[in-house]
Amino acid sequence: MSMKTSDSQYAECLYFTSSALARKVEKMANECWKQVDLSPSHAYLLMAVLEEPGMQPGNLAEQLQLTPSTITRLIEKLEEKKLVIRTTEGKLTNVYPTPKAKDLQPELRNCVHEFHTKYTSIIGKEESIRFVKTLTKIADKLTD
Amino acid sequence: MSMKTSDSQYAECLYFTSSALARKVEKMANECWKQVDLSPSHAYLLMAVLEEPGMQPGNLAEQLQLTPSTITRLIEKLEEKKLVIRTTEGKLTNVYPTPKAKDLQPELRNCVHEFHTKYTSIIGKEESIRFVKTLTKIADKLTD
DNA sequence: AAAATTTATTTGTACATACAAATAAAAAGT
DNA sequence: ACTTTTTATTTGTATGTACAAATAAATTTT
Description:
Chain A has helices at 14-33, 40-51, 57-64, 68-80, 99-123, 125-141; strands at residues 84-89, 92-97. By secondary structure, chain A is mainly α. Chain A has one domain (33-137): Winged helix-like DNA-binding domain superfamily/Winged helix DNA-binding domain (Arc Repressor Mutant, subunit A). In chain A, helix 1 (14-33) crosses helix 5 and helix 2 packs across helix 5. Chains A and B meet through helix 1, helix 2, helix 3, helix 5 and helix 6 of A and helix 1, helix 2, helix 3, helix 5 and helix 6 of B. The structure holds a DNA duplex (30 and 30 nucleotides).
């Protein structure tokens, strides 16, 4: 049913291959984080806030490599779910995890682990490490 | 200003790195195809139809590794721009390029070339080839 | 001190993508 | 021949993301 990326006429184009891979990985990640009813992005934002309570949107944008506006949107949703609260003073905003978020932390860690195990078992232990390193290196080169 | 992927706390996670890369590549591709006022996806779909007039949505979905519903949406937009026409008979649909699309073909090829040149100059000739091959290989492994 | 610039965040809007359900036609089974 | 199942496509709806503009506060310049 589902076609291999290598069978496509566009298998040698970076746009095509990187987005095809990202979609596959995202789909896999979605399944893992479904059990906590969060998208991977929301989950990673939440984990960042749990590790550094009070973190500001700007820093979150850098950490997660997303635009500030996207961060605002992600926070809004987490706020609706009562997982974070925002306090604004002056032009700065701080984002804090709620007790509910803290309760969720073990489960979040479990999702990370599950996801990691899943792709490692498919790609291979050594190769996944190498691959992720390569991805990071190339992404860095593309940083303007 | 813009942070490197390797500086993120999540630089060792496949979800994070693959989506960060895809976003950067997509941004770069967007710039290239702006001159023909198309997103990369629309452009690739159009090129596929130009190379094989009458191609059906199902095959396009496979080639481009997108879902059928996404293909329908992309076609709708290209139809609005008078770049393709759809003819439906029975349960099958054929997508054909218009003369306007054919006129655009050289420019499209130019975009592909420009994009390719751009990322090759950043990543390096040999390394981009190797990298795209790796991406394809891993994407294939992730195919369910 | 007042004005101009820079910085941090949010809002309005648009877009690519997907899932689930709806159509509708073709193929297979009886 | 009629019913069931499968296949192809589209529609309704939702989501993550980004850009450009709007706020608004802090900093710098004059």
